[in-house]
Specification:
Elongation Factor Tu (Ef-tu), domain 3, five-stranded parallel β-sheet, 7 helices, seven-stranded antiparallel β-sheet, Rossmann fold, single chain, 2 domains, 29% helix, alpha/beta
Length: 250
């Protein structure tokens, strides 16, 4: 990144409200990404490719790595987090995949084309391989968290997995393997149907897994309900559970 580009990002960061102020205190790093290509994977799923503004050379890459993108929303800062897809530190490129719905980030992605830029912050992302290594992965995901799910399954490639996926998978770039049991669940009742499906099946499945690893990444309410159930009712140790809400249901 040129000095002039860095100056621009710092100036913009100062107008990001309390979120930007907190990130600055945490020594977050700011970058400008430039769009090189965009394509519709499905009518509701879009992949956008970027040059990284020097980010990957400075930060390195790890599984499920994500960045915060900043958008203007009627004059107010609006940030959303996205997982890197196919990051290439040598080339300084990566892609982001957007599950499209109503919202500022999706609207930006729909219109994005070569030469467009977006400001980004890197802070808070990290990944620790579960130790001891899991005997089985239990994952709950949806289109919004699909890039992170793919990255997780790649990082834990030899481990068998049971995956509850809310919504359709047709046409989506899901990297499932033969040792992955994928259970598609339609979205009903604001995620309550998914919650009940997981609660019904998981106790019996856990009996055959001495070292489970539970990964939950769907809408915030569903994620909270399932993570609390797994920890409190099923007594899975906290360090064996990774849960992050990816979006809020309207």
């Amino acid at each position: 990144m040129s000095w002039r580009g860095a100056e621009k990002v710092t100036g913009q960061a100062q107008g990001r409200g309390w979120e930007g102020a907190v990130l600055r205190l945490l020594r977050a790093k700011d970058y400008v990404f430039t769009v090189t290509d965009a394509q519709d994977v499905t009518p509701e799923y879009r992949r956008v490719r970027f040059t990284d503004g020097g980010m990957l050379a400075a930060t390195g890459v790890h599984p499920t790595m994500w960045v915060r993108l900043w958008f203007d929303n009627a004059g107010k800062p609006h940030q959303r987090a996205y997982t890197l897809v196919e990051p290439d530190p040598e080339a300084g490129t990566f892609a982001l995949e957007f599950a499209l719905h109503e919202g500022r980030a999706s609207n930006w992605a729909r219109a994005a084309g070569p030469g467009d830029t977006v400001e980004a912050t890197v802070q808070g992302t990290g990944f620790e391989h579960p130790e001891p290594a899991p005997s089985h992965v239990f994952a709950v995901a949806d289109p919004a968290s699909l890039p992170a799910l793919n990255s997780l399954l790649t990082a834990l490639a030899p481990v068998p997995a049971t995956i509850w996926f809310e919504g359709g998978l047709e046409g989506l770039p899901f990297r499932a393997a033969a040792h992955h049991d994928v259970r598609q669940v339609p979205r009903r009742d604001n995620g309550r149907h998914l919650t009940e499906e997981v609660k019904s099946a998981l106790p019996e499945l856990l009996k055959d897994s001495p070292r489970p690893y539970v990964w939950i990444a769907c809408d915030t309410a569903t994620t909270r309900a399932l993570s609390a159930h797994v920890r409190k009712e099923l007594s899975v140790p906290r360090q064996r559970v990774n849960a992050l809400g990816y979006w809020r249901a309207g």
